[in-house]
Amino acid sequence: MKTLEMMIQTLCQAGRCPEETIRSSVKETGKPAVGCFPLFVPEELVYAAGFLPVGLWGGISSFQKSNQYIQSFACSIMRANLELGLSGKYDMLKAALIPSQCDTLKCVCENFKVAVPKVPVIGVTIPNNRTIQAAHGQLLDEFDYLSQALEQVQTADCRPMPLEEAFAVYEEYRAVMMEFINTVPDYLTTISPKVRHLILKAAWFMDKKYYTAQMRELLDALKARPKEDFTGKKFLVTGIMLDAEPVLELLEELGVAVVDDLLCHESMQFRTPTRAGGTVESKLAYRFLDLKGASPLYEPRKPRGDLLAQLARERGADGVLFCLMKFCDPEAFDHPLVKKDLAAQGIPLLSIEHDQLVESTEQLRTRIQGFLEINLS
């Protein structure tokens, strides 16, 4: 019988080794893989078409070939994705879904077609103005287009299923993940910032049905233990992503736990509740229309600061860590609004600029230590 530590180690290893995990998942399920670029794509359509949806969120620290196709002042996620594609790492993919949720993604969608011709590109258009009824109809039309595009790249290994069945798999996944998110604050010693991140990250590279089953086992084992008395400081993390292990290890070293997040890479993938009633296509559409708090999404009144303040109070967070992705304009535009809203509600905010090329954390160590001593002592 697996112990909790063994379960954690297995999922952390899956999150730490994307290529190895994807190849293992393809072999285990018999499904061909389709890549999903950030930030939000309808994975259920990919799953229903008989493919294994996998996340493409960069993850390398050096760039040799991608500078031919994208400027050096683009975010490291997009540069890394192009670099990996040019290096042949994505040749295993039957297609790549690329949404148009920021200016860089729009450019990469076209550049990827030329730079990586072996991987067919399927563009995903999500309406900007998501509060009008026409957006719902546009999304339903977009889903029809995506389903047809996925049919064009299907292979003999694909075993399509009804969308209702695929949606049910993802609904179960989302429910289990929210249970995990709600349980973590009671076990902040066992679930350190790095462990929490790697467990969530593993979901990007595994079949959601298999991943959900493993998470249920982990949750049962975790809840069987007494709740832990964590004496350090609790941070709520927000941004596009925070996957630099040196930074996560630094937080743990300084006695800081991640009590919750509003990261596009992590809980924002499953945090939005599904509406009741209607067809499964309509429910899937409203999952995109009801998204809140992600900087690349158009929102007339940016609610992110208020969402963070409410979540910080619910979780008992001591402060908010704003992880500003380097060269990410939407995040830079959101930052002053979030800072103003949190200050108005008396919630301390620490902002750090970062990317996937973290080589030294000493300056960051000084900033976090100063923040803890001045604001949270």
UniProtKB/TrEMBL annotation:
Arranged from A to Z, the UniProt key words for this protein are: Iron, Iron-sulfur, Metal-binding
- The question of whether Iron is a record keyword is answered with yes
Metal-binding found in the keyword field: yes
Which InterPro entries does this one have? Answer: FldB/FldC_alpha/beta
Q: Which cofactor does it need?
A: [4Fe-4S] cluster
According to the UniProt entry, its GO molecular function terms are: hydro-lyase activity; iron-sulfur cluster binding; metal ion binding
One Pfam assignment: HGD-D
Q: To which protein family does this belong?
A: Belongs to the FldB/FldC dehydratase alpha/beta subunit family.
Q: By what name is this protein known?
A: 2-hydroxyacyl-CoA dehydratase
Originating species: Evtepia gabavorous
- Taxon lineage: Bacteria, Bacillati, Bacillota, Clostridia, Eubacteriales
